[in-house]
Design a protein that fits this description.
The chain is mainly alpha-helical. Helices cover 63% and strands 3% of the residues.
Length: 192
């Protein structure tokens, strides 16, 4: 199996498992939306070329470990003590053993820099900056868009409503770095 074949599997993996939504989104589609949103944010904020590159590819790869572990939804990670750390360790081990051998050795250090701890702010001389906290807010915003649009299309459920509400509250609390309030207002003004 090649690295691209492995990544390509994410185009079949659905987001919001077992929660009916329209439109359905895949992990790969979500990752691309996060990467695009972060790139546009970097353009607007005047980030340098290296940071735009780093933030885009970190956004694109942020859910890549799910191809090996599948999705474990955030409420489960939050409510089972120690599960998030256990999954992080397991994902790291699987990436090292299954993914890294599929890419050229000369890419591995940079790939690790972009892939591991994607939501942590980083700034290293060798690879440059990654705006991890802003990237996390773009990830949350994209999940909010997925829930909001589905509800507005008339497809909803208790789980989806709870998800949309909790994402909205998190964006209100932590999303100033990407102007989340303005983005949410503009989304709700759109006719869909």
């Amino acid at each position: 199996m090649s690295f691209l074949d492995l990544i390509g599997q994410l185009r079949f993996q659905q987001r919001w498992t077992r929660v009916p939504r329209i439109p359905q989104t895949t992990v790969l589609g979500h990752s691309l939306l996060v990467a695009d949103m972060m790139y546009l944010h970097d353009l607007e904020s005047g980030a340098d070329e290296r940071q735009k590159y780093n933030d885009f590819f970190t956004g694109l790869f942020h859910d890549l470990p799910e191809v090996l572990t599948k999705d474990v939804i955030s409420p489960v990670k939050a409510n089972v003590s120690g599960l998030a750390d256990l999954l992080d360790d397991y994902e790291h081990e699987l990436i090292e053993s299954k993914m890294m051998p599929l890419i050229p050795e000369s890419w591995r250090a940079e790939f690790s820099y972009l892939l591991f701890d994607p939501f942590m702010d980083k700034d290293e001389d060798r690879f440059g900056k990654v705006a991890g906290k802003e990237l996390k807010m773009c990830d949350v915003m994209c999940a909010y868009i997925e829930a909001n649009v589905s509800r507005r299309y008339g497809i909803s459920s208790v789980k989806l409503n709870e998800g949309e509400d909790s994402l909205f509250k998190r964006l209100e609390k932590e999303g100033d770095c990407i102007r989340a309030s303005d983005l949410m207002r503009r989304l709700n003004e759109m006719r869909i």
